[in-house]
Amino acid sequence: MQKKAQIFNFIDSLPRKFLTRTGEMGSNLSGGQAQRICLARTFYSNKKILIMDEATSSLDEETENQIINSLKALDKDITLIIITHRKSLLEICNKVVNIDNENDK
Question: Are strands 79-83 and 49-53 parallel, antiparallel or unpaired?
């Protein structure tokens, strides 16, 4: 699951590997590292519905593309609900609901 979330190499580079303390609420992690750990937990959970809210917003483009490939490879019986501003994530969706706040002004 760590490899699907593109976090394994980072964990493997730490002196204590998986035993490393990340600080209170992950305070010793960057935003992208924290997001990738959350994604690894999500992939590990094997749920039938995954809700992801801005799950790749702190990731660089290359890592985001790797995560998108991992999402594409998930079991087709899994329902993904993705909340995002990133069009690259929307490309893997078979249905997109656009909520336009411009009309609310």
Answer: parallel
